Amino acid sequence: MSRSSTPSALGISSGFAGLGPAPLTVLGVVFWALSGSDFRRRVGAALMGAGVACSMGCTVGHGLYALSAASAIELRQRVSSSQQRVADDLRKANEDNVQLRRSMLDLSNQMEELRKEVANVRGQNEGLAHGMADMQRGQTGTEQSAGERNVASTMVLVDGQRFVVGPAEKHAFEAALATLREGDIAQAQDGLVAFVKHYPQSRYKPSALFWLGSVQYALHNYLDAEVNFRALVTAEPSHLRAPDALLSVADCQVELMNVKAARRTLQDVVDAYPESEAADVAEERLAKLQ
User: Whole-model pTM above 0.85?
Assistant: First the structure.
């Protein structure tokens, strides 16, 4: 064994010498086994193992970093795509909303024009109501029918129709119209409602339904007015008042914001009564509602 491989040369404290020859002999054998080329090979192998471990750690680290970067890129792409879809949907919704507002504005303008027209017609109808009531009063006949069993019955002419009625029935109808002529619309409504209920089969009924619908329209009771106007048209489609009654049904539907139904009714007026003045008015209103 060379001098460089002695215990003192390897930094072993001289204190081991006090332990006797046996321990020193064992240590000498160990250091001899580890000395020389065998020791170098073992140390080199250990260093190579450490280098391989470090190299593998770096490789794994680079792999994990690359995987994390790819995932981040894919996530950003997905987020970007989702944001683009949301932006497209929002833009389309805004465009649809703008178009809807324009359509609503156009419809509102049409409704406003039609309301003005209806208001004008309403004023004309009120004047017509007073004039027709006066005319009916002048046209109502008082001739006695010799052929009637009841000598108290009276022949009358109302809205182009001539028929015989009893005194009570005649008085009830004329009293309701008299109230209307005096301008008490609410009282006239009560009188006409009572007349229709009390005389459901009266020949006055078509005229009573027309005037009842007219006063209900004036009182903004559009639902009941529409019912009574339509009842007149259904029961007496050839009656003198039928075209105006059907036109008034359309007016009620406009007030109730049912424009689609109003268009259909106005077209019905034109188709059913093409030669009437009501048909001319209906055509004008249809043009405004297109």
Answer: no
